[in-house]
Amino acid sequence: GAVVSQHPSRVICKSGTSVKIECRSLDFQATTMFWYRQFPKQSLMLMATSNEGSKATYEQGVEKDKFLINHASLTLSTLTVTSAHPEDSSFYICSARTGGLDTQYFGPGTRLTVL
Amino acid sequence: KQEVTQIPAALSVPEGENLVLNCSFTDSAIYNLQWFRQDPGKGLTSLLLIQSSQREQTSGRLNASLDKSSGRSTLYIAASQPGDSATYLCAVDRTGTASKLTFGTGTRLQVTL
Q1: B100:A46 CB<8 A
Q2: What does the alpha-carbon distance between residue A34 and residue A32 come to, in Å, rounded to a whole number?
Q3: A97 interfaces chain B, CB cutoff of 8 Å
Q4: B32-82 pLDDT per residue, tens
Q5: What is the maximum alpha-carbon separation in chain A?
Q6: Residue A103: its chain B contacts at CB < 8 A?
């Protein structure tokens, strides 16, 4: 149980384009989903927290207009990187938490490369 | 601001050895601490979660300890195997609601044959 999937697993795009990453909780309802970014050989940095049906809360230094987050249902959250640039190349990981507030369940990650 | 540090950054051991990974955090006001495993290019797998009131947790060959007052946790791996090769991350939860996790820098472990 408690499986989280991400799609795509890997994406390469040209600079200036937008990329959408999906995060789904497969066998549970996720009241809250989290988006992290991980640069090579660095740890995970929380980007934003999204609750179903409400606006995401962004961490300090994360541009909300650049990283659009939508959490329209209890099983799906999307992260759209708008006008991507090479410095946005990173590993993006989502996680989901149930209403039980026990722990976060992590997706397999999406490797974004912006050329 | 909570800072989480893991030492060593990388470790290579021969198969069969016991080993200890270290995690330290600057703010002892935490609710729990969790150890994760991350395989290359993959997401995170939770290994052990220790509540702030607990001293240790065990799962198979893994044992995690927590000394909240000194801001330290250790992950002990017994009889290491090549399949244990991965990056190990610790994370502290400062809210008690599994929301604001602060991750350490990770230890890259390689177990050789």
Answers
A1: yes
A2: 7
A3: yes
A4: 999 999 998 888 899 999 999 999 999 999 999 999 999 999 999 999 999
A5: 41
A6: 34, 46, 49, 98
